[in-house]
């Protein structure tokens, strides 16, 4: 199975019927901002939608033992990259938008159109553990059966 092409997308969590999107929580002047789940229905105007738009940039192939592609997720409005908060990823670590370039392993699942967003070593995946708005997207051990770790890329 393939991954989406380079382009602009809303990234929607599968577990919540695409109602929770990958959102850069803005505010203040901090260059490192949390990435949270937020209900898509709350975005009524263009001004509030711009932080949920992400550029998926396909940059290469992973090591042979992994399926998928190496990608970057870049917030369209801020130009920041989705990445683990700390240099060495760990369980429960929050995912943030920050200026440094960061790569992810985007892996297709057994269900067409659903993907796991993983650290390049395939150890951790982005998960949204609750449906509540502003729940941080965090890293959890990869589990292909966990719907909180599955995402759709919805073209914008």
Quickly list its features:
about 160 residues; five-stranded antiparallel β-sheet; 13 strands; mainly beta; six-stranded antiparallel barrel
Produce a short descriptive summary.
By secondary structure, the protein is mainly beta. It is 3% helix and 43% strand. It is globular, with a radius of gyration of 14 Å.
How would you describe what is shown here?
The chain is mainly beta and 156 residues long. 3% of the residues lie in helices and 43% in strands. It has one helix and 13 strands; from the N terminus they run βββαββββββββββ. It has a six-stranded antiparallel beta barrel. The protein starts with 6 loop residues before the first strand and ends with a strand.
Count helical runs.
1
Number of strands: 13
Give the class from helix and strand content and strand pairing. mainly beta
Beta-sheet strand percentage? 35-45%
Average pLDDT level = 88
Radius of gyration: 14 Å
Strand order of the largest sheet: 1-4-5-8-9-13
Share of helical residues: under 10%
> Which spans of ≥5 residues are poorly predicted at pLDDT below 50?
none
How is this fold's topology laid out?
Blueprint: E1 7-13, E2 20-24, E3 33-39, H1 46-49, E4 53-60, E5 69-75, E6 81-84, E7 95-98, E8 104-108, E9 115-118, E10 124-127, E11 135-136, E12 138-141, E13 150-155
Antiparallel strand pairs: 1-4, 1-13, 2-3, 3-7, 3-11, 4-5, 5-8, 6-7, 8-9, 9-13, 10-12
């Amino acid at each position: 199975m393939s991954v989406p092409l380079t382009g602009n997308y809303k990234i929607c969590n599968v577990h919540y019927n695409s109602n929770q999107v990958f959102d850069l929580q803005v505010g203040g002047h901090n260059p490192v901002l949390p990435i949270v789940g937020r209900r898509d229905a709350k975005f009524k105007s263009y001004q509030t939608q711009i932080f949920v738009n992400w550029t998926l940039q396909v940059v290469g192939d992973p090591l042979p033992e992994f399926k998928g592609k190496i990608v970057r997720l870049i917030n369209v409005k801020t130009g920041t990259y989705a990445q683990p908060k700390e240099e060495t990823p760990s369980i429960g670590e929050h995912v943030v938008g920050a200026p440094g370039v960061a790569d992810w392993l985007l892996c297709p699942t057994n269900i067409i159109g659903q993907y796991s967003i993983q650290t390049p070593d395939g150890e951790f995946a982005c998960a949204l553990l609750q449906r509540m708005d502003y729940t941080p997207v965090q890293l959890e051990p990869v589990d292909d059966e966990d719907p909180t770790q599955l995402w759709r890329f919805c073209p914008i």
